[in-house]
Specification:
This protein has helices at 3-19, 179-197, 200-212, 225-233, 351-364, 368-371, 379-387, 390-401; strands at residues 22-30, 48-51, 53-57, 74-79, 83-100, 105-109, 115-120, 139-155, 160-176, 244-247, 250-252, 257-264, 276-280, 286-291, 307-314, 320-328, 337-338, 342-347, 404-409, 412-420, 426-435, 441-445. By secondary structure, the protein is α+β, with helices and mostly antiparallel strands.
Length: 446
């Protein structure tokens, strides 16, 4: 080796000694646990900001039969468009476990906003029940770039609601020395320097090729026409839950009461063991109370009639309104379908009598407008009350004031009262009451 070659090798050694660094990677794992169903993800996690992302919980909004979480019960999903993650500092890689209904792509961007890496799903659909043959849910996809990634965009269906992401991982990057790698690099350089000096033309040509393949010029495979066509045509079928009902809709405070909830679902795409009863809590959380069934057992009237049933005991220590909802999963759908909300009301034991007392007071005062709030709305009832004189209203109020509860069954209360006929005889009058939509007891027959 010539003196010039030796000096160049020594300079290269010193240069590498003080400048060689690597990305020391500290993995950050996002499990998405601990968030209520329906939480919009933004900046809840330090170091990353989400866009178009929502938390879905198994059994509540997430169809866990088709899109099972990789761990726990929560996943993140695309909400209204492609999901984006922007990192507070550069990361070396990003990955996660994906279950998708359409072809999926992950695009990674560097600090200048240029595309630096990309990944695509292995299948067009990897749902657990209806995915492409050979596929399985929770496929791990990853993008990485040694120069650092500042953001990623995950694209499924352009409208969103097309994939579930769980256990997302990114490696934060910090520049620190790496002695072991440095030693290997220097050794290789000392061996190669004489060879490189004797092949200047060849080395220059190689350098040009390396520059042509620099990260800024990395070619990222474009989405295929077939993938775009699949995504554009993957319009989800509309699924629905039929008539839902709960009986009774009222109960006495402090008394455990069995409530029977039924839901008619005739959609053939229904996953039969997915029909859940939810309780919507006042703090924004949701509780799964149980699974409705259609087997003719435990309160279900007939097996196989597509009317699903659950009998669930509930109680409350104070006057309250409890909201229930039925949630069902369908083949090929990420999101569960939910029924209208069902309300049940815990009230004092004498709530019907309180309503009768209030009705009698308004009638005695001649306030028919207020009195009509305590009767089932009908044209005939409104006309009859408005046609009564004050004497007639007072007589009706007296009859109501003496009414006694004689029967109770589910949502029906039966009262009887003795009144005097014009000839002085006594006769029994019967009236019935039912709860209205807001739990208020109403006279429906008198």
């Amino acid at each position: 080796m010539s003196r010039f070659s030796y000096r160049l090798a020594r300079a290269g050694f010193l240069l590498l000694l003080f400048s060689t660094t690597h990305l020391a990677r500290s993995a950050v794992i996002l499990s998405f646990e601990g968030f209520p169903d329906g939480t919009i993800l933004t900046n809840q996690y330090p170091g990353v900001t989400f866009s178009n992302a929502i938390i879905l919980t198994a059994g509540i909004s997430l169809n866990e039969f088709e899109f099972p979480p990789h761990s726990g019960v929560n996943v993140a999903s695309d909400n209204g468009g492609p999901m984006a993650l922007t990192f507070a500092s550069m990361v070396a890689s990003f990955g996660g476990y994906f279950t998708y209904a359409v072809p999926l792509t992950i695009d990674a961007y560097g600090s200048t906003g240029s595309l630096v890496a990309a990944a695509a799903s292995a299948f067009s659909d990897n749902e657990a029940l209806s995915g492409e043959p050979g596929s399985s849910p929770n496929e791990f996809l990853q993008v990485s770039f040694a120069g650092g990634i500042s953001s990623v965009i995950i694209t499924g269906d352009p409208g969103g609601a097309s994939f579930a992401l769980d256990d997302a991982t990114f490696n934060s990057a910090a520049a620190v020395p790496e002695p072991s790698s440095l030693t290997l690099t220097l050794t290789a350089m000392l061996i190669l320097v004489p060879f490189l000096l004797n092949n200047v033309r060849r080395s220059k040509s190689k350098l040009k090729r390396q520059r042509a393949l620099s990260p800024a010029a990395v070619r990222v495979p474009a989405c295929s026409f077939l993938s775009l066509l699949c995504a554009a045509s993957a319009f989800p079928a509309t699924h629905s839950i039929g008539v839902v009902a709960v009986t009774p809709i009222t109960a006495v405070i402090g008394t455990s009461t069995p409530f029977t909830v039924t839901a008619s679902i005739t959609d053939p795409a229904l996953i039969s063991n997915s029909v859940n009863l939810l309780q919507l809590n006042g703090n924004g959380s949701t509780t799964v109370l149980g699974t409705l069934h259609d087997d003719g057992l435990n309160g279900d009237a007939f097996a196989g009639d597509l009317v699903f049933t659950l009998v669930v005991p509930l109680n409350a220590s104070a006057a309250s309104d409890i909201e229930l909802q039925v949630s069902a999963a369908f083949t090929g759908a990420l999101l569960r379908v939910k029924s209208p909300i069902l309300n049940i009301f815990f009230q004092p034991a004498n709530a019907p009598q309180q309503a009768i007392t209030a009705l009698a007071q308004y009638l005695a005062a001649g306030n028919t407008a207020a009195a009509l709030n305590y009767v089932v709305p009908s044209v005939n009832t409104t006309s009859a009350l408005n046609a009564l004189s004050q004497q007639g209203l007072s007589a009706l109020a007296a009859m109501l004031s003496s009414a006694q509860l004689v029967g109770s069954q589910n949502n029906l209360r039966i009262f009887q009262s003795l009144i005097a006929t014009p000839d002085g005889a006594k006769t029994t009058v019967e009236l019935t009451m039912v709860p209205g939509p807001n739990g208020q007891w109403l006279v429906n027959n008198w």
